[in-house]
Specification:
Blueprint (H helix, E strand, L loop, with lengths): L6 H21 L6 H19 L1 H6 L1 H18 L1 E3 L2 E7 L2 E3 L1 H18 L5 H19 L4 H17 L4 H21 L2 H8 L13 H12 L11 H4 L11 H33 L4 H25 L17 H16 L4
Antiparallel strand pairs: 1-2, 2-3
């Protein structure tokens, strides 16, 4: 029944999700019981993909890419508009965000594409073209955070592939040169976040409000925190998006340095196990996939905590396995399941 099983990763994931459920219950009881459905589906997906094995999933890499594009197109056609974004598709009383779900699926495709044959400049340019299509479909929703994660995952796969690293450096320089173009497709609220990053106090009741309140919440928890359900910033709604974008700040206020440190330790264990999976993967393709997933997970944790501490511009990325967000949870668990399946235990 359990052909592939890693005790360290499984236990860490279990405690992260459980930790998140307790915190979310104190922050927003209205999430339940519907959120428990997402948790159950995510756990089943993790089990399924870990047992199927990477080599089987890899056989359908092209199909996964096509399915990803269809889901993203479907979002633009029938997606539910929420706060100016067309990111969610309703299914009964629940909704899911295809942009999140396709993240691990695209990583499987690009891991195959970049490592299954000799990676020439021509093939790399084709891969970049294939990357631009889903990235653009996500940007126009708009969802800048998810777009960044997909590009980061692609870059992680590229690093793990058999490709001249000098060319990778050239590619990075080209991307940096093209960064100003992102300004043209960014929404006004996204531009405001960047403009107020260096000086949030310049607009304390507007674009800088979230960053200011987040830093206050982190500092207010001190060592042991105010206690679950007793946070002033969180319970009195001074801290916006307390259960998603700023869940780390919420944990810091209610559970203090001790609670946030436990959170960081568990996240570190997950990342540590992913590095082990990279070293002992069933194939070079599997190794490239785990490298891409590792980098997206790592960047997601760093950006989330960084923006909660006011060190990074606010991008709206949830904390993996902890923040509320059924689609993000499902995507992360699918990605982890595939990574376990890639491990040559």
């Amino acid at each position: 029944m359990f052909a592939k099983f890693d005790i360290y990763l499984t236990v860490s994931v279990f405690f992260l999700i459980t930790f998140g459920l307790f915190v979310l219950n104190s922050l927003s009881t209205s999430l339940f019981p519907s959120y428990l459905i997402y948790v159950l589906v995510a756990l089943l997906a993790f089990w399924f993909f870990s047992q199927v094995g990477f080599e089987v999933v890899s056989l359908f890499s092209k199909h996964l890419y096509i399915i990803s594009l269809l889901l993203l197109l479907l979002t633009l056609i029938i997606g539910q508009v929420t706060r100016g974004t067309i990111s969610w598709i309703p299914i009964g009383n629940l909704t899911f965000q295809p942009a999140e779900i396709v993240r691990p699926l695209l990583l499987v495709f690009f891991a195959n594409y970049l490592t299954s044959a000799e990676l020439t400049i021509k093939r790399l340019l084709k891969a970049v073209g294939l990357l631009i299509i889903p990235t653009f479909l996500i940007l126009v929703q708009p969802s800048l955070g998810v777009s960044v994660l997909i590009v980061v995952g692609f870059f992680g796969i590229l690093i793990a592939s058999d490709f001249n690293k000098k060319h990778i450096l050239s590619g990075v320089l080209i991307v940096l040169a093209l960064l100003p173009l992102f300004w043209l497709v960014m929404q006004p609220y996204q531009k405001a976040r960047l403009q107020t990053f260096l000086n949030p106090e310049s607009d304390p009741l507007g674009a800088g409000y979230n960053s200011i309140q987040s830093k206050i919440s982190v500092g207010a928890g001190k060592i042991t925190g105010r206690g679950l359900g007793r946070g002033v910033q969180t319970q009195l709604a001074f801290l916006p998006e307390k259960h998603t974008d700023f869940v780390f700040a919420s944990v810091s206020e209610e559970l203090g340095l001790i609670g946030s440190s436990i959170l960081l330790l568990l996240s570190f264990i997950v990342l540590w196990r992913l590095t082990i999976f990279m070293e002992h993967s069933v194939s070079p393709i599997a190794r490239a996939y785990v490298a891409g997933f590792f980098l997206t997970y790592f960047i997601q944790v760093v950006i989330h905590i960084g923006m909660n501490l006011g060190l990074i511009p606010i991008t709206g990325l949830p904390l993996p396995l902890v923040s509320a967000g059924g689609s993000s949870l499902l995507a992360t668990m699918i990605g982890l399941g595939i990574a376990v399946g890639a491990y040559k235990a």
